[in-house]
Structures are given as C-alpha cells and as structure tokens.
Here is the input.
Amino acid sequence: MIVVMETKQLQFAKALADKNRLKIMTQLCCVWLSVNDLVEQLGVEQSTVSHHLKTLKAAELVLVRQEGKHRYYTLNQEQLTLCCGMLVQSFAPDYAATIVPVSSIQEASGD
Amino acid sequence: MIVVMETKQLQFAKALADKNRLKIMTQLCCVWLSVNDLVEQLGVEQSTVSHHLKTLKAAELVLVRQEGKHRYYTLNQEQLTLCCGMLVQSFAPDYAATIVPVSSIQEASGD
DNA sequence: TTGACATATCGACCAATATCGATATGATTG
DNA sequence: CAATCATATCGATATTGGTCGATATGTCAA
Here is the structure.
C-alpha cells in the first residue's frame, strides 16, 4: 500500500516536472482542447505534444474524449486533488488532519 | 504573480521527481537527521545525498539546523502543504474551495 | 595550529528524457 | 476504395540531471 503510494507520488511528480507539461495542464484546466489546439498555443511540434499528453494520461492527470477526427483532452482535477492530498498525508501529517480531508474526496469519487 | 507560481510549481515538482529525494523526504518526515544518517539509510554516496539536499533546500522543502559538526535536516511540512495547496488552486479550482482552504494555511504561516 | 570528522562543491560520466522529423495509425468524406 | 485530416508512434539527437570519486570548506578538539 505504501509502496503503491510512493510509486504514484513519483509518477505524479514526474508528470508535473516539465515546463511544457505544466503549460499544457494550464491550458487544459476547465476546458477541452484538441491536440492541435495545444500545438498552436505551445509552439512545439505535434509529436512533442502527443508525447507529453501520453505522460499526463499515464498519470491519469488528463481525460480524453474522441469526437470525429479530434481527440479532446481536459485536466483531471479529481486525480490531481487526490495526488496532492496523498502528498500532504505522507509528508505533512501535522497538517493533513486539519487541512486536507482526503477521505471526503475519495467518497465523492465513488464510481 | 501567476508566473511566480508557475516557477514555484515547477521547482516543487522537480524536487519531488526523484526516487532518492522522495526517500530522503520520507526519512526526514517529523525527525531531524544528519547527512550521514541519510547516507547510511539510502546507501548512496555522501556527495549524492548533499546534492539532493541542496535541491530540496532550494525548494524550501527542508529545514536545516547546525549542531556541532553536524547539520541536521528535517522536512518542511508547511512548505509542502503550501505547494500542494497552490497546485490544487491552480489545477483543481472545482475542488480548491471546498477541500483545501489554503488561506488558513497562509494565516498560520505568518512570520 | 594541527588533525580528525562532517558536509559541500567540483568535474566527469552515464542514464533518463525532451525534442524533432518522418512515418504509421485512425477517422471521416467523397 | 482513395484522399485528407488528426493524432500516435518511432528513431535519432540533444539536453537535463543523477551518481560517483576527489577535493575543498567548515567545525571542533587537542
């Protein structure tokens, strides 16, 4: 269980640890964008954007929806919140109890 | 302001994005350890541990205290909590209001 | 000051990964 | 089916960053 969390935390941190991926996440917050939309806004090659999206997808930080020839991505706010809560639980136990009631998030994510 | 946060978030994510640094953080949670203590527990060279501690220090994720010839490190739980709150505010606005009251953390950190 | 110990820094090497260009896969339309 | 557009994957290259060994800096005791 703890090992699983450590792996998840590493994957989460690595997913965030790139300038362009953070930019992508910023762009994808609260909206659905196609890969080409992101290509235009970031100014890097399409293959690069796809590569980053794959990394974010592996970390479950983005959701995908196919529509016609387009694939629309958006940020997975719930997963991000869970990961942050996990970090606080692991590394800030003095704050975890009062600040981040992760249990309530987990309840809300029952699917 | 937003630019500053993005830089901070990148630094935070990069600081966490290494297996050995996560191990160090785990070891330093709630306790003060010397560099040599960490060297023994991680099984890597002292120079490597110092290098990681420098990275964590730059991200303000550890606190240092000199005592005799030893330097004792511990995890900065408050900073970690702030960074996580910042991430949720930036990338999970739908959750930020109800789950992570960052303002209360900032109040508690007034110095 | 000298010696011993603890930690930080430096230089070199190597592994991981970001990027690009080219190509393959997949979806839609005619 | 062929043509076109959108995205994913692949191979090569460049850059970043982790690691080590050696050395420098700093601290304390004799």
Q: What stands out?
A: The CA atoms of residues 53 and 62 of chain B lie 8 Å apart. Residues 2-108 of chain B form a domain with the Arc Repressor Mutant, subunit A fold (CATH 1.10.10.10). The mean pLDDT of chain B is 89.
